[in-house]
Design brief:
Helix content: 40-55%
Radius of gyration: 33 Å
Mean pLDDT: 86
Largest sheet: 13 strands, mixed
Structural class: alpha+beta
Shape: elongated
Strand content: 15-25%
Distance between the termini: 79 Å
Low-confidence stretches: none
Number of strands: 13
């Protein structure tokens, strides 16, 4: 029996190693990534298993067709937005793969069965590594163990320097290990090899998994130092409380409210909000109550989507299937949107630091950034992705919780200001060039006039006294000199302004 289900998502930024290209469109080109011929990853564009095809049918009918391009790897052209890879070991049902979490203070290791390990690379320069984990151990069905799995299974680096010491860990597990994969590498991390220079260094088992795919890219965390948690928990007792009391989840006097807060915000031993009024307000804002009378409760935080249900309630299996596939896909989309925004923000910062470089170089960089951003807004960032009410409501809740509307407005302003800045510099550059052309034109204008004048007339027709020739030349050169001096003074005056 499955007591709980856990999906851990790792959003990251990828970059081509030793990349000398300056344009963003070239640096995020998926076709430049060469897959290792000995890779244990397999690019999957067509599902072969009957159950997977059925789930895929449900998903595609659930989402608008224009959303499919970012959700599914189905095309083989340069406009492809996603490359989807799955571990080959998962194709062999006889091969058992486990995700092991050693929780501090517990003698027994938490063992989760791995249903799938997937890796998506996106054409915005970000990626998503996902672990689908099933909790089937009888001794791991209590609420505290489920909370511990979420809390310690998601940590991919020590959040504080003191956590490197295994004797003082509160947030970080003793180790994480993946067993059963066909590789000579040890997919293991105990976090003891970190030092003060290793900030934002992902766990080695994640590095090894991505390196199995290709040696062409480097990866770094882009959103958080933790995995995003999608978790479903079956508990008859807790579900009964939800079913019989619609206010139990936000009632500070009930123990269930304490559990729900810890489950929703991935807290292990205690709630990280110690103000009753604030805690109640947060729970009301972040809890989704559509299926409350079925004993089902959903919640969304900045780093989780959680689902509590009865062990065998009405439509329980259908709700779980929907949660595991359709709603999990919804989380993927939102994480890709958030991570892509951060990638664009980093690019804006990089381009802004190039103000002393050639105007054409900066302009070309910004044009490439603007092109990729337009594609992101048109093909990845959607206001609505489904016509189904619950999908619309959860999508909006995720967007509001992660503040994507605010981030995209800020990003719009940043890119627009950068575009205006470069446009102003281009105008100044053109005006400067035009100014120099005017200078040269003014300098050579007297020569042109003189040349034209004498080209059409003979001196003998204009000047009858030969002694006047020198005087004429002196007057012409004097006028030429005065004009030149006035132009130089005018240029100096413009520079001072």
């Amino acid at each position: 029996m499955t007591y709980s289900y856990h999906i851990f998502y790792y959003p990251f930024r990828w970059d081509i190693k030793n990349d000398n290209h300056t344009l963003l469109s070239e640096r995020v080109d998926l076709e430049r990534i060469h897959i290792s011929p000995t890779s244990h990853w397999e690019r999957v564009q067509v599902q072969t298993e009957e159950k997977d095809r059925q789930f895929l049918y449900n998903e595609k009918n659930y989402y608008y067709p224009f959303v499919h391009k970012i959700l599914y790897d189905e095309s083989n052209n340069k406009t492809n937005l996603i490359y989807h890879f799955e571990r080959r070991e998962m194709k062999n049902t006889a091969n058992l793969v486990n995700y092991l979490i050693k929780v501090p203070g517990r003698d027994k290791v938490c063992v989760l069965t791995v249903d799938a390990i997937n890796l998506n690379l996106y054409a915005t320069g970000i990626g998503l590594l996902s672990f689908y984990l099933r909790n089937e151990q009888d001794e791991q069905q209590d609420r505290d163990t489920v909370l511990a799995i979420n809390q310690f299974g998601r940590r991919i680096m020590p959040p504080f320097y003191a956590e490197i010491d295994s004797q003082h860990r509160i947030e970080t597990c003793d180790y994480i290990r993946i067993e059963g994969l066909n590789s000579t590498k040890d997919y293991y991390e105990d976090f003891q090899q970190y030092n003060e220079n290793d900030s934002w260094r992902q766990a080695s088992f994640i590095t090894h998994l991505i390196d199995d795919l290709t040696d062409d890219i480097t990866t770094t965390p882009i959103i958080d130092d933790r995995l995003f948690v999608v978790s479903w928990y079956q508990n008859k007792e807790l579900s009964s409380i939800v079913k019989n009391d619609a206010k139990a989840y936000c009632d500070n006097k009930q123990d269930f409210s304490n559990f729900w807060y810890r489950f929703l915000f991935v807290d292990n031993q205690y709630e990280t909000c110690q103000n009753d009024e604030m805690k109640c307000k947060v729970l009301i804002n972040q809890t989704y109550l559509r299926w409350q009378k079925y004993g089902s409760l959903y919640g969304v935080s900045r780093y989780s989507l959680v689902f509590l249900s009865d062990v065998a309630g009405p439509y329980t299996q259908h709700l779980f299937d929907t949660f595991q596939t359709i709603y999990a896909r919804l989380v993927e989309l939102v994480l890709v949107q958030r991570a892509s925004m951060l990638r664009f923000s980093a690019e804006v910062t990089d381009v802004s630091s190039l103000t002393n470089q050639d105007v054409n170089t900066v302009s070309t960089r910004i044009s490439s950034l603007y092109k990729e951003y337009i594609r992101f807004m048109n093909q990845i960032y959607f206001r609505e992705v489904t016509a189904q009410d619950q999908g619309i409501e959860l999508y909006n809740l995720l967007h509001n919780t992660l503040k994507l509307e605010d981030y995209v407005k800020d990003l719009d302003n940043d890119i627009e200001e950068l575009h205006q800045y470069v446009s102003l510099n281009e105008d100044r550059f053109r005006n400067r060039q035009a100014g120099w052309l005017n200078v040269f034109a003014a300098i050579f204008l007297p020569v042109t006039i003189i040349t034209g004048f004498f080209g059409m007339n003979n001196w003998s027709d204009i000047i009858t006294d030969p002694t006047d020739y020198n005087l004429v030349w002196k007057i012409l050169w004097l006028l030429f000199g005065i004009g030149f001096i006035l132009l130089i003074l005018q240029l100096k005056r413009k520079k001072k302004l």
